[in-house]
Amino acid sequence: MGSVFPSVPGLDVNGLIYRYTTIKNTEDSMKVHVGNLNAEGGGYIFRETDDWSGLPGNTITKSFSVGNTPSAAWGAGSIEVEGQGSVDNASVIYSYRVDECYDPQLNPGCAGYVEPVPTVVEVVVYDALDDDSVAAALDNDTEFKYDSDGNRIVDEEDEEEKTNLEKGLSATDNALTLFKTQGQADLIMAINLQTNIAMYYNSSINGGVYKDNNTLADSKLPDNPKAFRNHLAQQLLHEELMQLQYKQ
Prior knowledge:
The chain has helices spanning 132-138, 156-194, 198-201, 225-247, and strands at 11-23, 30-38, 44-51, 59-70, 74-83, 86-98, 145-146, 152-153. By secondary structure, the chain is α+β, with helices and mostly antiparallel strands. The chain has a domain at 11-104. Strand 2 and strand 3 (44-51) form a beta hairpin.
């Protein structure tokens, strides 16, 4: 039944429905056995027999509750015919559920649930005194002298090294400052070159005066006879409408 049930842990079968149609003569003897083998032992985990002897062919549907049996116990299913006749359009439908308590640790509400104990992480304490580098530094014979006020007395060699270091840093800062000043001057000069519009003041555009040479061929426009006739027709229509109003 591995190809019928999904591969999900904790799957239980809680019921099944089967349906089929018998093809037979009424007077013939016939029995139909529907069942599933027990995959975890001998015999059948489910078995049902329908006796069709002396009955005409017909369609039957039956449903059963099997009480949440683990799916692993369900072996191969079969529909067997005993006697004369045949079965057509047979189908078996299984109803199943997932038991969330198949592993009690999945749900605190399941029987047998054990409160998990957190893993204690072992902390290794680092002892600096066991470090060879620290021990070597502590063994250094370098000693410093201090005055009555607790200030360190600097030797002439240390003072000279400090002075040289300060001079070097000062020279570096001055060099950076000079570089920044020079860079700003170059940037301003480049901007001024881009905005230099003096070259446009001396440019000239060729041109002159273009006189108007448009003239009319006719100094007097003739009347439009079509427009005159249209105006006259509208006037006559208006007068006719006025006369009709007074006649009424």
